[in-house]
Amino acid sequence: MLECRIPDPNPILLKYYQPGDLIFGGIVSQVFFLTSPAEFNEHPPQISLDELIVVTKNYQHILALIFAIKELNENPHILPNVTLGFNIYDSYLDAKWTYHAAMQLTSSRNRLVPNYKCDTQDNLITVIGGLNSQMSLQIANILSNYKMSQLVYGFAPETTDKTQEYSFYRMVPYEALQYRGILQLFLHFKWTWAGFITENNENRERFEHKILPVFSESGICFAFIETYPYLSFEERLPETIDWLMEIYDKVMSSIANAMIYYGDVNSMILLRWLLFLPEMEESVQKLKGKVWILTAQMEFTTSVYQKSWDIQVLHGAISFTIHFNELPLFHQFLQDRNPSSAIEDGFIKAFWRQAFNCVFPDAVLDNVVGDICTGKESLESLPGPFFEMTMVGHSYSIYNAVYAVAHALHAMCLSRYKNRAMMDGKRRELQNNRLWQLHHFLQHVSFNNSAGDKIFFNHNRELVGGFDVINLITFPNQSFIRVKVGRMDPQLPVDQAFSIKEDAIVWHSCFNKVQPISVCNDNCAPGYRKTVLERRPSCCYSCIPCPEGKISNQMDIVDCFQCQEDYHPNKYQNSCIPKAVNFLSYDEPLGVGLTVSAIFLSFISILMVVIVVKNHNTPLVKANNRNLTYTLLLSLLLCFLCALLFIGAPGKVTCLFRQTAFGIMFSVAVSCVLAKTITVVLAFMATKPGSSMRKWVGKRLAISIVLSCSFIQLGICTVWLAIAPPFPEADMNSVSEEILLKCNEASLTMFYCVLSYLGLLAIASFCVAFHARKLPNSFNEAKFITFSMLVFCSVWLSFVPSYLSTKGKYMVAVEVFSILASTAGLLGCIFVPKFYIIVMRPELNNKEHLRRSNI
Q1: Most buried among 110, 337, 403, 566, using CB within 10 Å?
Q2: What mean pLDDT is reported for the chain?
Q3: CATH placement of domain 17-174+326-456
Q4: Helix, strand, coil share of the chain (percent; to 5)
């Protein structure tokens, strides 16, 4: 049979003692402060003066320890034949009494002799405590000398002394996880402006140096960071009230709705004081709804004189709590607890008196002031802030701490039993000088508790677990419920560690059931971007519209961005919409108008060709080289038709021949005009007696002029097509709201060479025609050619600025219009007068009339 025990000790009564083979040491914080007659003249507490005021909520911590040891002693599978006991000491929130209790636990019974223990009774195996970090450190300063394990059910302090080795086992997750959870909570609700209140100790320093930069990097700023000193309502009440008034004004005047309140288990009492100020002072501004974010160190507790204070000011608060589950038999255990059934309990009467506002009869003095405690009062009748019948986080940690030590001790006993054969008739004793061996087993302990949670430590001796996110819902009858609305689980991936059920949260009534906003200024709507304000935190900014061509599609965006190439910003610059594909189409009015005009003018040209052919042998047609007339009419017809190449979606073929066909056709037409003009001049000069110009007059000269001038333009176009041929292109950038389908000329130099050569021919024709405009009408068309070239040059001179100042399809339309207008100018000015005579006045189309008009 497995045995791991010491000789039965003689029981002694310390503060609270349960006899047993192995002793747990517990150090709790049951007392809050002393009271005196002058402190609460308006709201006097219903207790005897000069009596210690007990934080009744903390009594559950004691009961959790008792309940755990009771279960273990009744469990035959863990430490059989071993009875566990415990000693519990109250620290009174005082360093002197904390050190005294730690030394008392490590000394012989009734003999407080430091570092001396002369008996083998009351073998202390571990100490559980304390509740706040300072108390834990004070206990550790004593226990570290004995290499004794200390299971801390509050948050243990961060120690900077590397020479001192502390044996902390933290029954709570590492504290940084809680701050990560608060940060994720703020990011989830987009709260960027908050208040922070904490005690003036290492917590503030840790927050400012380690946590505040992380919040700032995530875009969260603090409207104020306030600390409160260690407060005493006994001697420094005026100073305390002044501080509370100052903080209250800052909280209520701030536009921040999210308030982080960092404190220890008893800090809730101070927060209750802070929120009670409007009831005490009429001059204080009325309470506004705030979202209080409470840390896991705190419990929803109250003091005896705060019993009637309204708790609905904390309605909707969000609290990070140590994960806990309800223990199956714990509720019944609490129901059975009363002063008559727990005679050995040294704390229960103090708790009972203040919880139920009654007194126990004094058998010695036989004087009773107030209601008598019957012992039959029901714990379930107490308000939640006073005492809860369900497990709370710190009590759950104490329960798990007891079981962790029991499992570790059981594993150590099994290890000894396996490694060493038992001697007949002898028992193995667990001596204090072997307690350091417990650390190895405690570090590797792993078990499932009665609530189904797995309990084990990581390499830093911290409990591997998470935090629950609790929404506090309060009621007018001083009751409240905790609603679990989220979780911070470190065992999940980082992006999944934090979860929140937003729809399950009940907010303070001041927010009208709408999620509160806590920002320094209004959010920048989509279509705007943030801009930094001088001498203000980064969370305070103004909003300016996005620049042209850019958008923002989210709230509070830092910089606007451009849409994809085939999209453009909408009117409000908050989204991208597809660009419309744009080109000079046959389907739109502008395209239809230009197409009809080109076809109509082409028809007129064909009609004139037909009329010329029918009147082939008339004097008017024969005058000035009828072959040139045919060539000019055909080239003008082709000029009208080449305008159609510019209408419709650009393709490879149309882009390749669009500008080159235009240049060549116009060069032929202008060359014909130039040849006609030169022919007129030479013919007039050849009529003079003895003129040597007669040999130049004839068809050869005209053909040579047309061919030579046209071939130069043909050569330019051939070079253009050879070195950099035009190609179709989708222009995304010229017009912000459109995709322009156009022909890229590839080489603007060659394009302007074509235009320049065409302009050179036109200027030459104009000059020659202007010189010959006064020659006899029977020999020339110089007057008509002069006017036609004037129209031609005017159109193309106005084309250049118009072409460069337009974009997209209108650029193409300008060129098409210029082609049609200049071609129509040549056709109308040169041929309309002739065709008027041919069609309307045929009697004038004879040699006699021509001779008479020449005289």
Answers
A1: 403
A2: 80
A3: 3.40.50.2300
A4: 45, 15, 40
